[in-house]
Amino acid sequence: MILNISIDEAVDIIKARTHKPISMRIVNSNTINVGYEVSVKIPLIGNRSKTISVDLIIDNVTDSDIYIHYSTGIIGGDSLINALLSYFSAINNPKVVEACEDGHIMIRLNELDQLKGVLEKVEINSISFGDDGIMVDFNPLF
Q: Is the distance from CB of 70 to CB of 97 less than 8 angstroms?
């Protein structure tokens, strides 16, 4: 079975949960680009904002663990992303997100309270991106 979540719906869910200004666009079947707007107050100039974009690439899905890595494509950009990631509460929880070396991250979906009950009833085969949005291929467990 395939669950299809539109990009707009995913953005709305993330904004509602994190209260952070983000954007998303699909790059290819295993890569999504996420933009985060950063606003800085500069003395004598005022507020300036810039959108920082990062590609999130799905490497593998095993049981309820998702292995991804990220890339900004600019020198020093990955260090900036490391700093920004600390603002998201789920990423600060080592039970949910394990940051590894070189921009690799493991996300343990079964550690998210909202998904525990669901993951006892389904097995995730893959997660990919298409024209319609985010596609989660899964099998129900009987």
A: no
Please give the average pLDDT of every successive group of 10 residues along the chain, which has 142 residues.
93 86 92 88 85 90 90 67 58 70 83 84 93 90 82
In terms of Cβ atoms closer than 10 Å to its own Cβ (0-12, 13-18, 19+), residue 124 is buried
pLDDT at position 31, please? 96
Q: Which residues are CB-neighbours of 33 under 8 A, at least 6 positions away? A: 24, 25, 26, 27, 53, 54, 55, 56
Please tell me the total count of domains within the chain. 1
CA distances from residue 142 to 73, 117, 122, 139 in whole angstroms, order as listed: 44, 14, 9, 9
Question: Rg for the chain (alpha carbons), in Å?
Answer: 16
Alpha-carbon distance of 67 to 45, in angstroms, equals 41
Expressed as residue numbers, the domain containing 47 is 2-140
**Using CA atoms, how far apart are residues 94 and 50, in angstroms rounded to an integer?**
29
